[in-house]
Each structure stands twice: as structure tokens, then as C-alpha cells.
Amino acid sequence: MRSPADRLVAELRGRIGDERVLSAVRAVPRDRFVPADLRDRAWENEPLPIGCDQAISQPLVVARMCELLELDGSERVLDVGTGSGYHAALLAWLAAEVYSIELHEELSRQAARALAEAGARVSLSVGDGRLGLPEHAPYDAINVAAAAAGQVPAALVEQLAPGGRLVAPVEEEGDQYLALLRKHRGRVRSTRLERVRFVPLVERPATGRG
Fold first, then answer.
1. How far is 206 from 203, CA to CA, in rounded Å?
2. Confidence class of residue 162 from pLDDT cuts 50, 70 and 90?
3. Among 188, 72, 192, 84, which Cα is nearest to 145's?
4. Burial class for 40, CB neighbours closer than 10 Å (0-12, 13-18, 19+)
5. In terms of C-beta density within 10 A (0-12 exposed, 13-18 middle, 19 or more buried), how is residue 69 classed?
6. Directed axis angle between helix 86-94 and helix 59-68, to 10°?
7. Measuring CA to CA, which residue among 92, 139, 95, 143 is closest to residue 114?
8. Is 205's pLDDT higher than 80?
9. Is the pLDDT of residue 148 over 60?
10. SS3 sequence, the chain?
11. What ranges do the domains of the chain cover?
């Protein structure tokens, strides 16, 4: 009898051509990244709620975004929108270094526990993902797991290394699509891909005294 992970990989094969990505999907325990009461659905090809009005994305979408980054295991990667930590865990399996930033401190704490249980090494930060993490730039690849309004934030594009790739959902007039950006000889080329649905990429609220 096939395991839940094997069944999921079988479902994704044919739509995902990168065998390294499929191996990562099989190896990373998705059940560690969902709430305990949803673990019986963890290996289904569907998004699931994780709290803070956020969700763990559909495995097909996560795998597709990983595939678009064309990782060979040598890269430094920035993951914007840690969420459950599942996407970061796949990136850690596929790349050399992964830095991940999350707006919600509670989600970052939950992700830290799940990543530790999964044995995935990811450097986590809490902050405004639109600003990236310039202190660790440049990045060979950047993954954005929340929808940018109109265009990818300039700060993220600036943190791409020469030859770097960035994949992000972009929203225009209520529709979202995946955008793939490549930096080559100082210029950035953007390709519009399939439609998707993500939560919006928002700024960190200002805090005050009093």
C-alpha cells in the first residue's frame, strides 16, 4: 500500500516535471505543518487554514513555485511569508541556505516548531516581507507566498543576485497570477504565468506609544 506522501507525489507527477521537487514533497512531512485537528487531511492536494487568517498552500502550487526557481542545491534563498513553514521546508530540502520572513510573530513561532520537528534548517525572522532581508542579500532565488498588488516590491527585486529568479503571485484588478522574474546583466525580465489565489502581501502595522 502506498503511503500518503507517495499518493500525493503520484497526483503531482505529470504537472510537476522536476524530480528533485517531487522528492522534496515526498520527504518533507506536511502533517507537521498543519493544525493537529487537520492532520488527517495533511497529504491532500488542498490548502488548509493555519490561523491568523492564513493558510498552508495547496501542494501543487507550492511545488510549482519551487520548480520555477530551478534550484540545484547550491543557492541562497529568501522565502517571503513563512506561514506554516512548509514552503520554507521544501526550499531547505532543495537549496543550501534559506531565510524566511513572516509578518505574524505567532505564525513564525509555530513554523519554528514545525521546521525543527521536520529537521529543516531555516533562518526565521519577523517583519515586513515587502522589504525582504537585505542583510543577507543577494539571493539566488526569492519565493513570495503572498500576493503583491500590481507589481513585485522593488526592494525584493533589488535583493536578487545576478542570474537570480523570483516567483510571486501578483494581483491586478482582482485577478492573481504567478510572475516569474529573472535578473540578467542588470536587467529584470518578468513572465506572466498561471492564475493563483493567495492572501495579500501587506505591510507591518506601525506601533505607537501611549
1. 9
2. very high
3. 84
4. exposed
5. buried
6. 40
7. 92
8. no
9. yes
10. CCCHHHHHHHHHECCECCHHHHHHHHHCCHHHHCCHHHHHHCCCCCCEEEECCEEECCHHHHHHHHHHCCCCCCCEEEEECCCCCHHHHHHHHHCCEEEEEECCHHHHHHHHHHHHHHCCCCEEEECCHHHCCHHHCCEEEEEECCEEECCCCHHHHHCEEEEEEEEEEEEECCEEEEEEEEEECCEEEEEEEEECCCCECCCCCCCCCC
11. 4-195
How do strand 54-56 and strand 48-51 relate by DSSP bridges? antiparallel
Residue 206: per-residue pLDDT: 47
Share of the chain above pLDDT 90, in %: 88
The CATH number of 4-195 is: 3.40.50.150
Active site residues: 57
**Amino acid occupying residue 68:** L
Name the nearest CA neighbour of 33 among 77, 90, 79.
90
**Amino acid found at 146:** A
pLDDT tens profile 166-184 = 999 999 988 999 999 999 8
